[in-house]
Structure formats: C-alpha cells, structure tokens
Design goal:
The complex is a heterodimer of chains A (about 190) and B (about 190). Chain A has a domain of about 40 residues. With about 190 residues, chain A is an all-alpha fold. The longest helix of chain B is centred in the C-terminal third of the chain and has 28 residues. Chain B has 9 helices and no strands. The N terminus of chain B is likely disordered. The chains are: A mainly alpha (about 190), B mainly alpha (about 190). Chains A and B meet through helix 1 and helix 2 of A and helix 2, helix 3, helix 6 and helix 9 of B.
C-alpha cells in the first residue's frame, strides 16, 4: 500500500517536472529573434579585423615619433634663445640709439631676477651630496700642503690656535659682563 | 549530426560567414534556449526576451564562434547565464499559469476542475523547487528540459556528470518527501 503510494507520487512528480520543462514558445520565435539580430547588426559596426587594428597602431606610433622629433627640434631652438643673463645683456640691443640714451640702462645686478636664478638652478646638475663638494681654494691648498710636509708642527700650531681662541672667548665673556648698563641708582650717584 | 555540420561550417570561419552560422543556430536551437530561459524565469515574455538576449550575445562574440567546440552546449550555457542574471535583476514575476490554464481549457477536453487542480499542483511544485538549495535546484531545473541529458547539464553548470546525477537524486528525494507530507496533511484531516 505504502509502496503503491510512493510509486504514484513518483509518477506524478515525473510528469509534473516534464510538464514544467515543456514550455512552448509563441509561434514564430525564430523569425522574431532573427529580426532582432538584423536590427542589432545594422546598429553596431562590424568588429574590426586584427589587421586593421595593427595598421591603426602602426599609424599612431609613426605619428607619435614624428611629433617627438618635431618637439626635440623646437627644443634646440629654445635652448639657443635661453642664454645666461650676462650674455644677453652684452648683446647689442636692437633698439634705436636715442631711446637707449633716454632710458637709464639696467644695472647687471637687476638682470638676476628670481626667475633667472631659478632657471639657472634648474639647469644645474643635481648632486647626490649636500652641500656639494667644492674644489679647495688657494689658501686651503697651501694649508693642506703644509700639513702634509710638517704634520707635528701643524698639530702643535692647531693646539695653540685652539687654546688661544678659547682664551679669547673667555676674555670676551668677561668684557661683556663689565659692559652691563648702569642701574638707575648708579646713575643718580 | 547537426552539431557536426555546424562545427564544420564554423571551422576557420571569419565574421562574414559567421552570420550564416548564427542563423543556423537560431533556427536549430532557439527552442532549447527558450526552454532553458523559461525553466529559470517561469514567464513567457521574460523567456522570450532572454532568448533574444542570448542570441544578441552570440552576435557580439561572433568572432569567437570558430573556437566553439559544441555549439548546442555553448548556447545552453549562455542561455542559462542570461536567464539567471535576469532572475537576479528583476523581482519575481507572477506565474502566468492562469492564462495558460484558460487556453488549455478552451483547447482540450479536460474538465475545469482537473485543470485547476493541475495548476495548483504545479504552483506547489514551483514553490517547493524554489525552496531547494541552489546546488540542487539548478540541476533539477535543467533536467526538466527534455533535450538536455545529464552530461550537458554538467557542462552548463561546470560540474561533473556524477555530481549532477547525485544532486538530481537528492533533489527528487526532498521533493518527494515534502509532497508526501503535504498530501498526507490534506487527506489525513
């Protein structure tokens, strides 16, 4: 009895599931889909072929390289124009002579505007060390030579120099103490 | 045989000839695509829209048609994804079973009571299937489509055939158990 019920239920379930999946579209589904596809095909452009894409990429590359070449050419012109201010001032002015005498000539100091300094700094090579190492001056070179030749004397002199500078500093402090302004009582006396 | 012809037609086919292949696919597989869509969406209008969208996707990716090994399975997979996406986007639409019931009543000799009972049972079955976990519901939904054997269901869902078979068995077991409880409750009182 129980198995009979089970069998009936199974049969019903099979049929119900089959019926569930057996949905029929309205007649003419294929034609409607094809019409929709035709309309869409007219709307969207055909996909570009890989050759066309390659040609496009090549054209873009050539264009970019030509532009860069042109830019670098104009860049050299600009560098010739941008000369240091001293040279620019030394160049003969194209103005008429009368005008030049009428207006006071610029002093070379005024030529160093903040813009020119910034430009000069921008063009100067940036070194990894700060402050940048500078070549020794003439006096420094002489001192270095002396130290190399007479190291003992140099040490003695350096010590004596240090002691002297310390003594000078102490004396200066004492002098400052004595130079204090007078109190009002002292002024009254 | 049909698939073989389609694959031969697509072998090394560029965009121009792919249009013929798409037309062939529509004529041959539109009904299957529609049924897959309907099994998910349970609404004729939505199923037709999903069918249209499936073939529009095919049109968009027509350059890849040559790489397709099994046209039927490929279409089934696209149809499944489109329908599932649509189900996620749109809220659950009411089943249009009433209109169908009226049509059946007009065209068949079945009594109105029987038709209403069938419609009611279908509604109950739909709600029971909807309550299943998705890993059981999906293979069961696809298994209701007559044209889809378990091997193709496995391809569509991206699992192996054995998993599909065992999930189908479990899903049916659950449905049978719940239906038995419902029927006993109805007739037991």
């Amino acid at each position: 009895m129980e198995s009979e019920k089970q069998r009936l239920l199974d049969n019903w379930l099979d049929q119900a599931l089959k019926q569930r999946g057996a949905a029929e579209p309205r007649p003419g589904l294929e034609d409607r889909v094809l019409n929709g596809l035709r309309a869409e095909r007219n709307r969207i452009p055909a996909p570009a072929s890989p050759w066309r894409a390659a040609w496009f990429a090549a054209a873009v590359l050539i264009g970019a390289s030509l532009f860069l070449a042109w830019r670098s050419g104009t860049g050299t012109h600009r560098t010739t124009e941008m000369q240091p201010p001293a040279e620019r001032d030394a160049r003969p002015s194209p103005r008429p002579a009368g005008l030049a005498t009428a207006q006071p000539q610029r002093s070379p100091k005024r030529a160093f505007t903040s813009r020119t300094v910034a430009r000069a700094l921008a063009h100067a090579p940036k070194l990894p060390q700060f402050p940048s190492p500078q070549p020794l001056s003439e006096q420094e070179q002489m001192l270095a030579r002396y130290v190399l030749r007479f190291p003992r004397e140099a040490v003695l002199m350096a010590r004596a120099q240090t002691a002297l500078s310390k003594q000078e500093a102490v004396e200066e402090q004492q002098n400052r103490r004595f130079d204090l302004p007078e109190t009002p009582d002292e002024q009254n006396q | 045989m049909v698939t073989v012809i389609a694959n031969q037609a697509m072998a090394g086919v560029p965009a121009a000839a792919s249009e013929e292949v798409i037309e062939f696919a529509v004529r041959e597989h539109a009904r299957l695509v529609y049924r897959i869509s309907y099994s998910v969406l349970r609404n004729h209008h939505d199923a037709e829209d999903a069918t249209q969208e499936t073939f529009l996707r095919v049109l968009r990716y027509r350059t890849k048609l040559a790489e397709v090994r099994e046209l039927r399975t490929w279409l089934a997979r696209i149809a499944w994804r489109v329908a599932v996406d649509r189900r996620k986007k749109a809220p659950e639409t009411p089943l249009d079973g009433t209109a169908e019931a009226i049509l059946t009543l007009r065209s068949s000799t079945t009594s109105a009571d029987q038709i209403l009972l069938q419609a009611e049972m279908q509604r109950v079955l739909d709600s029971l299937i909807a309550a299943l976990p998705s890993n059981l519901r999906d293979p069961l939904t696809l298994s209701t489509i007559e044209e889809l054997p378990p091997a193709q269901i496995a391809d569509v869902l991206g699992v192996n055939e054995a998993a599909v078979r065992s999930r189908l068995f479990r899903a049916r077991q659950i449905l049978r158990g719940k239906l038995a409880v419902l029927l006993e409750g109805k007739h037991g009182v």
